[in-house]
Amino acid sequence: MDAMVNETGSEDRRVRVLLVDDEALMRAGLRLMIDGAHGIEVIGDAADGQAALEQIHELTPDVVLMDIRMPRMTGLEALQALRETGCEARVIMLTAFDTDEFLLQALRAGAVSFLLKDSPPEEVVQAVLEAAGDRPRFSPDVLTRLVRLASADGTDPSGAVTGRGASGGEKAGEGPGASTTASPTPAGITEREWEVGRLVARGLANPEIGEKLFMSVATVKTHLGRLYHKLQVTNRVQLAIRVLELGG
Q: What residues form DSSP beta bridges with 91?
């Protein structure tokens, strides 16, 4: 992210964003929502995945807001191509209710967040800011769908087969939506780690988790690192889904 000087003489961080959607009206609406909000600057837009790759290479945005379904090259194909080149731009996938089959693929390809196309402006702005800080954010409806898809797919979001294993797994009759109460701490995971995992699944950031559990941010990160290893996931979105799968 670039720095810019505000009226007080101190530096603010500027988040540079590229918009990618095949609908010009959607791109215009997103620009109106976020451009200029809290240091966000829309630096360009593209109508398909191929054009997005060219723009990303030329403009090097911090965050890319990208539709999943587009002509010529889909958002998923563009995301996979970006990851193969080692691009560090954070990608937020924009989804509609008819794109379920692509959600898990996008997650495994490295999408940092998911938003519904009809998300309110404040949610889109917050998602961009958090993505710039490598913190995932997803619409609640999207998270529910991801959990359901992961369960039906028979894998966790990182690609490992679900079921009984080192981390415990679901018993018969358990799973997303099976109960409104939290399950016992899975085998191999401490109660404190599980508390942290459940708060991640609720969408809390590290400082919020630390405040709620009376621990430092460094300690929260330590617990997260252990959870990533034990649950075989690589980011907070995957962790949130796995915790929910396990009844957290």
A: 64
Q: Determine which of 84-88, 128-132, 174-178 has the lowest per-residue pLDDT on average.
A: 174-178
CB 106 within 8 A of CB 79: yes
- Res 223 pLDDT > 70: yes
CA separation for the pair 158, 238 (Å, rounded): 7
Q: Which domains does the chain have, with CATH numbers?
A: 2-138 (3.40.50.2300), 158-245 (1.10.10.10)
| Strand 11-20 with 2-5, pairing | antiparallel
pTM above 0.90, yes or no: no
Query: For 101-104, which contacts have Cβ atoms below 8 Å and span 24 or more sequence positions?
Result: 102/68, 102/69, 102/74, 102/76, 103/142, 103/145, 103/146, 103/149, 104/146, 104/149, 104/150, 104/153, 104/155, 104/157
For 103-113, write each residue's pLDDT tens digit: 777 777 788 88
> Is 246 within 8 Å of 168 (Cβ atoms)?
yes
Higher-confidence position of 89 and 244: 89
Cα four-point dihedral sign 48, 53, 57, 63: positive
**Tens of pLDDT along 151-174?**
665 544 444 433 323 333 333 233
Beta strands (DSSP E) in 135-246 are none
